[in-house]
Amino acid sequence: MSAKPFNIGRDCRVVLVYNGSRIDLPTVTGFQAQQRTSAISSSPLNDMPMFYDVPNGWNGHFSFQRDSSGADDLFAAIESGFWAAGTVLLGSIYQYVTECDGSLSTYEYVGASIQLSDAGHYQSEMLVMQAISFNARARNRVS
């Protein structure tokens, strides 16, 4: 089998781990993440300006078909936990990318705070789509 010339969207899988439990979202239809940085600059009197982008976490979102109550149950538990104990635990998001040569790259978004940004639109003969937005402390390469 020859290597593919480029990645396509089907080369990516996403798994959510929250409070030690794996949340199965079998039909993820889109995933997007962006590195956040803090811009720092220096204006020396004897040289040209210098610019630095300091890592400051990641954010993003992903969409998925509602195949089960997994996401709804997770966010109900997060909300109940907050009102009962006043705390919100952070989770991890794992992104698996099949590279063009067939190898697998795994990235972990650690310390992820998540939001059910779209709980779904229920309409006759239409798929119910949901979306989760996240902010994470860092993205680490696992393998």
Structural write-up:
The chain is mainly β. The chain has a single domain (9-141), classed as Pnp Oxidase, Chain A, CATH 2.30.110. The protein is built from one helix and eight strands. It has one helix spanning 70-85; strands at residues 12-18, 21-23, 28-42, 50-65, 91-98, 104-118, 129-136, 138-141. Strands 1, 2, 3, 4, 5, 6, 7 and 8 form an eight-stranded antiparallel sheet that branches. Strand 3 and strand 4 (50-65) form a beta hairpin. The radius of gyration is 19 Å and the shape is globular. The mean pLDDT is 92. This is Phage major tail protein 2. It comes from Komagataeibacter saccharivorans.
| Whole-number mean pLDDT | 92
* CATH topology category name: Pnp Oxidase, Chain A
Low-confidence stretches: none
Count of separate DSSP helical elements? 1
Give the radius of gyration.
19 Å
Principal-axes shape call: globular
- Mind telling me the CATH class? Mainly Beta
Strand content: over 45%
Could you describe the largest sheet, including whether it forms a barrel? 8 strands, antiparallel
Architecture in CATH?
A: Roll
What's the domain count? 1
Specify the helix fraction band.
10-25%
Number of strands: 8
Q: What is the element string, with H for helices and E for strands? A: EEEEHEEEE
Based on helices, strands and strand pairing, what is the structural class? Answer: mainly beta
User: What distance separates the N and C termini?
Assistant: 23 Å
